[in-house]
Amino acid sequence: MENLKKLNEKLLGYFEAIEDIKVFNELHGNREDDGMNYSSVYGDVWAPAIDEVSKAVDRLEDDIYGIYENADLTSEFECENVLHVVNMLFNRTFEKYDSELKYYETIMNEGYGTEEMKEEAEVMFLFYNGLQASVKGAKYDYGIR
Amino acid sequence: MVKVTIENKELEGYFNAINFIRSAIGLYSPIEADKNNVIEWDPEVKYCVSEVRVAVTRLYRDLRVIDVENDLTDEIVCENILYLVNKLFNNTFMKFTYDLKYYLAIEYQGFGSGLQDEENDKKRHFYMMLKNVFEEAKYEYGIA
């Protein structure tokens, strides 16, 4: 029983982790209603990336919710299976953006583009770097592998 | 000089590879597209297609800028640019392999979560097709 409780807490941790990442990166769908500080320094440049990540996070949230709703969370075995799948979905959602980070890092560091291109890369790098840091932080806080 | 010529051809191979992928996936805008070769994607995958289109357009734009702005008659510059372009090319498409893995995870979970629906199947097929086309383009144009 104690084990089952721990598994359920772990499952709920994913929702809390997602919520933290959303707040940190201003990923809430309707930013004005949420009162988020969306129009920060790089708001306009970041907007397409924020929208893209928001959609991926919404998909993750919906899918995790769908899994929880249909699974028998009173079964320890099923809880473990659900945790395994949810972990895969969570990690794959955010790993995707490591490629974006590397893309902009390459432009910044290799120095063969125009100044304008490098400046844009620096700004976008900041966004994806922040996203990566917040994902790491949330994983640590909620004990996600 | 011979080496530079070969490297310039290699660079051109990246543009050809991008065009190959754009044609195969139907990433051209309706104005650019050959009317006989327009792919009508299901509404469920339209967003996936548009995300890939944005990434490919960015890659093409960045590669063109790098191509135009640098002295491609210099052997060292050419080698460095090829290295850079290869990283940008691979990172652009690597991004979408995570989407494929996401939908594969949903497919393989196998304990009745209700997520194995038609929409997820279509998305998985799209990302699988993109991966195959990407691998084919790399093979066709000798890209590492």
Explain what this protein looks like in three dimensions.
The complex is a heterodimer of chains A (145) and B (144). Chain A has 145 residues and is mainly α. Chain A is 81% helix and 0% strand. In chain A, helix 3 (43-70) runs antiparallel to helix 4 (76-110). The radius of gyration of chain A is 18 Å and the shape is elongated. The model of chain A has no long low-confidence stretch (mean pLDDT 86). Chain B is mainly alpha-helical. In chain B, helix 1 runs antiparallel to helix 2 (46-69). The longest helix of chain B has 35 residues, at 75-109. Chain B is elongated and about 55 Å long. The chains are: A mainly alpha (145), B mainly alpha (144). Chains A and B meet through helix 3 and helix 4 of A and helix 2 and helix 3 of B.
Gist?
The complex is a heterodimer of chains A (145) and B (144). Chain A is mainly α and 145 residues long.
Layout of strands and helices, then pairs:
The complex is a heterodimer of chains A (145) and B (144).
Chain A: H1 2-25, H2 31-34, H3 43-70, H4 76-110, H5 115-141
Chain B: H1 2-25, H2 46-69, H3 75-109, H4 118-140
Helix pairs in contact in B: 1-2, 1-3, 1-4, 2-3, 3-4
Keywords:
heterodimer; A: 145 residues; mainly alpha; 81% helix; B: 144 residues; 4 helices; 0% strand
Global outline of chain A: elongated
Helix/strand/pairing category of chain A: mainly alpha
Cα-based radius of gyration of chain B, to the nearest Å: 18 Å
Helical residue percent band of chain A: over 70%
Largest sheet of chain A: none
In DSSP terms (H or I, runs of 4 or more residues), the helix count of chain A works out at 5
- CA radius of gyration of chain A is 18 Å
Low-pLDDT regions of chain A = none
Q: Please describe the biggest sheet of chain B, giving its number of strands, its sense, and whether it closes into a barrel.
A: none
Give the helices and strands of chain A as they follow along the chain.
Answer: HHHHH
Instruction: Please state the average pLDDT score of chain B.
Output: 86
Quick one: how many beta strands of chain B?
Answer: 0
Oligomeric state of shown chains: heterodimer
Chain-averaged pLDDT of chain A: 86
Most extensive chain contact? A-B, 31 and 32 residues
Please provide the count of β strands of chain A: 0
Helix-strand category of chain B: mainly alpha
How would you sum up the global shape of chain B? elongated
Q: How far do the termini of chain B sit from each other?
A: 23 Å
Percentage of residues in helical conformation of chain B = over 70%
What sequence of helices (H) and strands (E) makes up the elements of chain B?
A: HHHH
